[in-house]
Structures are given as C-alpha cells and as structure tokens.
Specification:
The complex is a heterodimer of chains A (about 300) and B (about 550). Chain A has 13 helices and no strands. Chain A is mostly helical and about 300 residues long. Chain A has one domain: MetI-like fold (Orthogonal Bundle). The two termini of chain A are about 20 Å apart. In chain B, a hairpin with a 3-residue loop joins strand 11 and strand 12. Chain B is built from 21 helices and 20 strands. In chain B, about 40% of the residues lie in helices and about 25% in strands. With about 550 residues, chain B is an alpha/beta fold. Chain B has a 6-stranded mixed β-sheet, with helices on both faces. Classes of the chains: A mainly alpha (about 300), B alpha/beta (about 550). Chains A and B meet through helix 1 and helix 9 of A and strand 1, helix 1, helix 14 and helix 16 of B.
C-alpha cells in the first residue's frame, strides 16, 4: 500500500546514459575521485607502456644499482635495467594478468552460482560441497602446490588462480541469485519455455549485477596481490618479464641500504608502492559503489 | 457493545490544520499532502479513505507527529490534547507513542518480532513506560486477548508470532496497541491482508474494543464497505487533498463530490453471464501435493469453456493457486488428468512443446515481481513475440506498439522500465505480455487484488474487452467476490483443496448455497453501515439454534 505518487514518475522523460553517468560522477566523494584518477593513470600506463617508458622492458641500459637521477628517474636494478620503465611495463603485465584472471573467475563462478541457485537439488549439493572443500585450503599454498605440479607458464597461472578464485565468486553469485530465482518473472520465463542460458543471463544476472560488480573490484585486488605474492616467491610471472612482485623480490637486498639521493626511497619500495596505491584506489571506488547500490544513503 | 448505543463523544482530542508534507524523490521534494485538516473528538472513529498515493498513511503517521524517512512536514499544526506535536521534542513524542497514541500496521507478520513471544511484545510498552508492573500487565494482556476473542486467552501469549494465524496476529497487535489504554489508535489498513471470513472476526473485535474503552481512532483503508462498518465519520482523500467529509451514514446515502460518487460506482460493474459447452480445458479428478504428504488439491474437477471466464474463489490455503500451478505444469498432478482441447496435456512443464506452452499463458498478482525490473517494455512484451512467433527487429517493435495500443497505453512507453510505471500500468504490461503469445487460455492469479478500486475496474474492463476481441478463456483466481460478480460466467468455490461448488454465476451466487459458500458470501462486507452488526447478530442467533 501507500504508493509513491506514481503519476509523477511516469511523465518524466528518461535520462540518457551520458546524463546518468554525469549525474552519478557529480555526486562522487573525493576518495572515489582519487581512486578513479589513480585507476585511469594505471590503465593509461598499461595500455601505452611502450610509448611512455623511456627504455625497453628488459633492456640493459646502465650499470647495476645506479641511483636515481636525470638519466634514470628511479635508478637501475641489479643488472642495469631502468626501474621506471620496468615499473610502467609492470603495470601492463601485473594488472593485465590480474584482470584476465578475475574476468575468467567471474565467468566460471558467476555462471555456476546462478545455475545452482536455479536448479538446486543434487547439482547444487555437489558443486557447493566441492567449493566448500576448495575454500578450506588457503589460496596461496594451494596455488603454490598446483603451480609446482602443472608448471609455471603464464596461462597456467591465470587458469589456476581463476579456478581457485571462482569458488568465492560462486558463493556470492549463488547467495544473491537465490533471492532472484524465487521471483515471478523467473517463473514466467520458465513457463514461456525459455532455455537455461536465457534465464541465467537475461533474467537473473542483470538483477544481481550491483553486488557482483562490487565484488569484482575487491576480487581483482586479491588476485592482483596473490599474483604479486606468487611472483615474489618466484612461481608467478617469470623474468625477464617486468612484474611488480618479482621486482620487489629482485631488489629486496637493497632495503637495508640508505639512499642518499632524491627521493630517498629504497628501490624495492617503488613496485610495492605501486601495488599498494592501486589496491587502495580500487577499494575507494568499490566503497563508493557499494554505498550507492546498497541503499546506505545519508539521512535526508 | 452494539453500535446502536450512542458513543460518548468527549472534547476535542486531535486537531490537525493546514498539514503539508513533502516527500523526497531522487533529490526533489514533491508535495504528498497539500494542506489537510483533521479533527477528532475523544471516542470518535474517523475513516480515511482514498486510492494509493492519496496520502492517507502519511496523514495517519503525521497524527503521531511522525514523518517517514524521506518525508518532511513543512507546514500546519498538529495539536494532540493540547500538545503541539510539531514543536514537541523527540523525547516528549516518544513518551506519547505507545502510551497515549498507538499504531496498528497493515502487516502484523512484519510488525511482530519473530524471536519473542506474543505476551512479551504485548506488555513491553506498558512496562517500559512504567505504567504497570509486569505481572499486572500480563494479567491485563490476557484480559485484552479475551475481549478480542482470541482462542485460549490464558495461553496464547506463550506462542511465537509464526505459531498463530494472520487474523489472530492482527488481533494480538490490537491488544498490544491497547495495552496502555491509549487515547488514540491509528489503524493503517489492518484487515487488507486478511481473508474475508477472517476479516469479519477481526473487524468485530476491533470495533468492540474501541467502543469498550472509548478510544478515539483513525481508520485508514481503501475499502469503503469496511470503513462503513468502523467509522463515525469519513474523510475522502485524493492526491493529498480532502475531497469531502461527512458522517458515515450521510456520506453513504448522498455523496456530494463526483470523485466520491465514482468510488461508490465501482462496485456496480457487472457482466451478463453466458454459458458455453465448448470446453477448452477440462481438469478431471486431479490430486496434487507438495512433498507428497499433504494433499493440496483433492479430487478437483473443473471445466473451462472457450471464450468464457471461470472464477475460482476461496480463502488463502484453499488450493486455488495450486490449481494454477498444476495446470501450468509447475506442480505435476499426482493423480487425474488435464485435457486441453480434448487431448490430455503432458503433466510436467518440460514435456510440453513450445506451441502448447504458448496457448496457456499466466498473469500474476504482483506486476512488481512478475516483470523483470531490468528489462524495458520493448523486451518484456517483445520477447514472447520473438520467442513464439519468430518475429524480430522492427517488425517485432511494430507488434509491441500494436499491443500497447490494445492495452490503452501507447508506443511512447516502449523504452520505459517497469519501475517508471504506475501499478495499473504495470499490470497492463503483464496482460500485454500474455496476449503477445496469442494464447487460448490465460490464467489470472489475483491480478487485481494489489490495485486500487478504480484501477481494478479499468483492468477488469480491459480484460473483458480483450476477451471479446480474441475469444480467449480466463481462469480467474481471486478471493474478492466483487471481482467475481463483475467478470465471471461460471464460478468454482474451493475450500481446503476441494471443489465445494461449480456452476453458472447466477446459480452459485443465489441461494440455496452449500454451507461454505454461504459463509464466504455472507462475509463480504457491504456498504450498509449496519451490515456487520446484523451479520454478527444473525450468526449468533444461528449458533444458539444449533
């Protein structure tokens, strides 16, 4: 009961997509703006890496461990490659691989989650119990083991991490989809004789999208940190490919040496800062999105 | 006890004048209540009626000095027994709420905390406000339960909300509101969610207790017949403005404003019955059950003639929605056969071919849950056209536009989302979606019960017109007898999974009735303000005789 003045809603013309984006952005808090700016910079760095970087990705251009200066902005690494260039190429590799992995894990986990919510019964029981078993084992250790067994290629890394991560996506997708599959419009689609594909992707998925997008941001951070951690341990992205995790590993001995030139930061911290900054930025944006879609509005 | 006795009306209790309330919609403040005056004396019952969106609930809450989140009171004064509620502090108002002003909400199931026993929740306010100690409050609660005619008043308080029926819960909430003997009770659609047979008991109990304690009440509803039983005076509201106000009997006899007259006229919609032997769907001796234990359908036989409307009536739990699920194949019958155009229909949904599915369509009660909120009207109506008839692209859009015309909307709606439509418009879209398949049978499951009366009439008229144009058969499931009168050719009365009676409308609605049909029909409120009194008297008499 108690309607919300329906006649007022119905006469208003729809805003175009662009207007909606503008409106939404105008209401974004500073933290979200900071996050979005950082993410855009990272994306630009990743896409245009060869144009921006002063030197090649694996090119030896100077002596080992040169300090920062006008020639090498952040100095050189242990065999004389330019750190700044590698940092930029690292964005492409680390962020790119993390993105592909997260996409893959959402495709697997999201589809299976909605499917089990629709089907229930033995399929739900079977998949859910397998997922529970996977969730009981720490990701990093499990990934290390699988990588040791199946080899250390980049595609294997992507596949293994995506599979492990999809278990978490599955849980969320299933839980949110359970609230949607009881709706009459899902029943109406079944009565119409629609196939599973239509019901999953056209009827259910659009309605669980807001929490899934939020989760995408958070999962991306975790995947990205896991890849960096694996690379640091030597089983992730292999040299000479530039990667932030392995860059920290390669220069970790320098952490104890004092730096006497500007900006007085030891070399291992540059990739570490790059990792931390992106994680924080994504979290800011996700927080804002979550706040917007969950209805946690400020009191009017 | 009886309404014959003149109520003792005291001095003025509530005085609202020039009340204006605004609501926030996407950052814009829009007026909801545009200057309304309400006055109420002690012991008087005022009925507020109007369509949804008229602002009646908002005014009801404002009488407590409360505005819902997203609403603000912008103008006017609210004087309750000499206290200006708009100027009173939060603390002062909270002191009044529960103890001197109480509120009974529409959904008792949502208003009770499922984790606590009824008695704990009934006495909470009185104990918290320090009006009574716990033992005394409990004794008083039992007394109130007895006065409200709840079964086993001594022990019912020890139950949890899910262990009692909806009607009992609604009475328990009235007991809760009464526990501090407030000066004013606000009833916000307290019987709307109940079956007619239950509604009678709840209405009688509420009316009684208000009279016994000489409590003033504001009774909010959209059901005229109900308000006629309850209120001394009626205020008709529309779009945040008062249309007219008069004592109940006066207003029922001669409403002054045109709008009030249209509210009265709705009930007169009726259709000539017409009988046919051309059976489109025959349900023969069908049993169905969930989880195989309790029979929800028990030997049900129903026939649906082509181009006619068969109304299935019954209370909640009578199995009428399950009948729809059995026909659509969502719940395959455990026994019996369903014949469609003379041929047996495959029992399970997955065994039916696309063309059979196309011929039987369904319209749901709530368009909010039956239309996907993420799909535009183009997708919603266009999908069955594409799916069943293989028409795509521009040709499909033309078809959608034609269908929109036939449901008296137009093609400018094609890119809207369901959330941008009103309740009646949404239900029209559901109808268009069913029509898009070009079906032979449409199952209508309570399609008008969530709508206002005026909108209901529009939808029913539309359905009748479409039946004339396309010769479609309707199986019309409803609990509302007025709707049945309006559109059916034949009536099936169901009770506890069994068919009590099937026959032409004129036969079922006129005596002699089987006992259950009699109970059901006599429980439908009538406009006569003495209806409830007379009904209770005649039922009491019948009981004495038996």
């Amino acid at each position: 009961m108690t309607a919300q003045a329906p006649d007022i809603r119905s006469v208003r013309a729809r805003r175009s997509f662009l207007q909606n984006v503008k409106r939404t952005l105008a209401s974004a808090p500073i933290s979200a703006w900071f996050g979005m700016t950082v993410i855009v910079i990272y994306v630009i760095a990743a896409v245009f890496a060869p144009l921006i970087a002063p030197y090649g990705e694996a090119e030896v251009v100077g002596k080992a461990y040169q300090p920062s200066g006008p020639e090498f902005w952040l100095g050189t690494d242990q065999i004389g490659r330019d750190l700044f260039s590698r940092l930029i190429y690292g964005a492409r590799n680390t962020v790119g691989i993390a993105f592909i992995t997260t996409m893959l894990s959402f495709m697997i986990g999201g589809t299976l989650g909605v499917l089990t919510a629709l089907k229930r019964g033995w399929l739900d029981q079977g998949i859910s119990r397998i997922v529970d078993a996977f969730l009981a084992i720490p990701v990093l250790i499990f990934a290390l083991m699988l990588l040791a067994v199946f080899g250390k290629s980049i595609w294997m890394l992507i596949l293994i991490l995506a599979l492990l991560d999809s278990t978490r996506v599955f849980r969320l997708a299933r839980a949110t989809a359970l609230n949607v599959v009881v709706m009459d419009y899902v029943e109406a689609a079944k009565l119409r004789g629609e196939g599973m594909g239509w019901i999953i992707f056209k009827e259910v998925l659009p309605n669980i999208l807001p929490p899934m997008i939020t989760e995408f941001g958070l999962r991306f951070c975790f995947v990205f940190l896991t890849i960096s951690a694996l690379s640091f341990l030597g089983v992730g992205i292999q040299p000479p490919t530039a990667d932030w995790g392995s860059m920290v590993a390669e220069s970790k001995t320098l952490i104890t040496f004092p730096v006497r030139t500007f900006p007085y930061i030891p070399a291992p911290f540059y990739p570490a800062i790059a990792i931390a900054l992106l994680t924080v930025a994504i979290n800011f944006v996700v927080d804002w999105f979550l706040h917007k879609t969950s209805g946690l509005r400020d009191e009017l | 006890m009886s309404s014959e006795k003149k109520r003792v009306k005291g001095e003025s209790l509530l005085e609202i004048s020039g009340l204006k309330i605004e609501g926030n919609s996407d950052g814009v403040w829009l007026p909801i209540v545009k200057g309304v005056d309400v006055s109420l004396k002690r012991g008087e019952v005022l009925g507020l009626i109007g369509e949804s969106g008229a602002g009646k609930s908002t005014i009801g809450l404002a009488a407590m000095g409360f505005a819902r989140p997203g609403c603000r009171i912008t103008d006017g004064t609210i004087m309750f027994d000499g206290i200006d509620l708009r100027k009173a502090s939060e603390e002062e108002r909270r002191e009044l709420w529960g103890s001197r002003i109480a509120y009974v909400a529409q959904s008792a199931a949502a208003a009770f905390n499922p984790a606590h026993k009824l008695i704990d929740q009934t006495v909470e306010t009185a104990v918290r406000h320090g009006i009574m100690d716990r033992a005394k409050a409990e004794a008083d609660a039992v007394d109130l339960y007895r006065r409200l005619q709840l079964p086993n008043p001594e022990t019912i308080g020890n139950r949890y909300p899910h262990q009692v029926s909806g009607g009992q819960l609604q009475r328990a909430m009235t007991a809760m509101a009464m526990s501090c003997r407030p000066d004013l009770i606000i009833f916000d659609e307290p019987t709307t969610a109940l079956d007619v047979t239950t509604q009678v008991e709840v209405l009688a109990a509420m009316r009684d207790i208000v009279e016994q304690f000489n409590t003033a009440a504001i009774y909010i509803t959209h059901d005229l017949a109900v308000v006629a039983q309850m209120a001394d005076r009626i205020t008709v509201l529309r779009r945040g403005l008062e249309v007219e106000q008069a004592p109940t009997r006066e207003m029922l006899k001669e409403p002054k404003e045109d709008y009030t007259k249209t509210l009265w006229a709705v009930r007169s919609l009726a259709k000539e019955e017409s009988i046919s032997d051309d059976i489109a769907l025959r349900i023969h001796a069908v049993d169905a059950s969930y989880s195989g234990v309790v029979k929800v359908l028990d030997n049900v036989t129903v026939q649906l003639p082509r181009g006619r409307t068969v109304a299935v009536v019954g209370e909640s739990g009578s199995g009428k929605s399950t009948l729809a699920r059995a026909i659509t194949g969502l719940l395959p019958p455990s026994k019996g056969e369903i014949y469609f155009n003379g041929k047996p229909l495959p029992k399970a949904l997955k065994d039916r071919d696309k063309d059979t599915l196309r011929r039987i369509q369904m319209i749901y009660q709530s368009a909010d849950t039956s239309l996907n909120p993420r799909q535009t009207i183009r997708d919603l109506i266009g999908r069955p056209i594409e799916f069943y008839h293989g028409i795509k692209g521009a040709a499909r859009d033309r078809k959608v536009a034609e269908l929109l015309d036939s449901i008296e909307l137009n093609e400018s709606y094609i890119d809207r989302l369901p959330t941008e439509l009103s309740g009646g418009q949404k239900q029209r879209i559901s109808i268009a979606r069913a029509l898009a398949a070009q079906p032979e049978i449409i199952i209508c499951d309570e399609v008008t019960s969530a709508l206002d009366q005026i909108v209901q009439e529009e939808i029913l008229t539309l359905l009748m017109k479409l039946q004339k144009d396309t010769n479609v058969s309707y199986l019309f499931i409803t609990h509302d007898i007025a709707t049945v009168r309006a559109i059916s050719d034949e009536i099936v009365v169901m009770h506890q999974g069994k068919v009590v009676q099937q026959g032409p409308k004129s036969q079922v609605l006129n005596p002699p009735h089987p006992a259950y049909t009699e109970l059901l029909l006599s429980s439908v409120p009538e406009m006569d303000p003495d209806w409830l009194t007379n009904l209770l008297a005649s039922r009491a008499e019948a009981k004495v005789k038996a």
